[in-house]
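As a warm-up, study this chain.
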Amino acid sequence: MQEMQEGLTALTGQLRKTYATTLHDLATLMRRVHLVAYKIIKRGRGGAVRVRPAFAPALVDLQAMDVESMAETTVSEVAAGIGLWGDWQTLLPRMTARLTDLCERPTAADDLARLQAETRVLRAWLGDMTDSQQLTGICPVCHAPIYQPPAAHSVTCRCGWTSADQHPARLELQRQWSRLHITVTPAGLSDWIRDNLGVQVNRKTCMTWLLRGKLNAVQAGDGCWTIPLAAIARQVQRHASE
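Now compare it with the structure written out below.
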């Protein structure tokens, strides 16, 4: 009997670990899809074939919005099982905070399998995002994302626009990001900055920024904060220059 109990405890621990990893991966992938939807970042090289548009490009990537919506539906259905409702930005951090409730559900294994399937779909759709180049900014002329090595100082866009420094491109990026927000915990914010801006900022520093009002954030419950991406970009830039 004791051996059976120990076996169940080990299985539960493994389930929690796998669930936590899956939710973290899903949050990272969905944030990237969200940024692709608003044309802030581009998909990986294996993601799509470049074509010449026959009309003016849309302000958003409709295919990316559909991909995001389908993944959000799955997240919402799993979260509803433990009494959580909202959009994926709100749900994923709250689901992470309630892993015990998720793992205790009779459908825990099936729910986890559905979420893992979504991560595979999103990863395949995004393509290879592990490029040596990082998002430098947005071209103020053609509004295309500019990707360059982290050590680059000058900026050059495919349209021919150039600048001796990165400030104009970063300023345009901040304007684009001003319409976007994320809902994360301090630890999730640290991960987002690392994954999307290429800068290491620990959880404690992120918490300090939040408590001191440096990010214009609003508490969303369960230890989560809703933060404008523009505020994150500005604060990270200040932090990197200190």
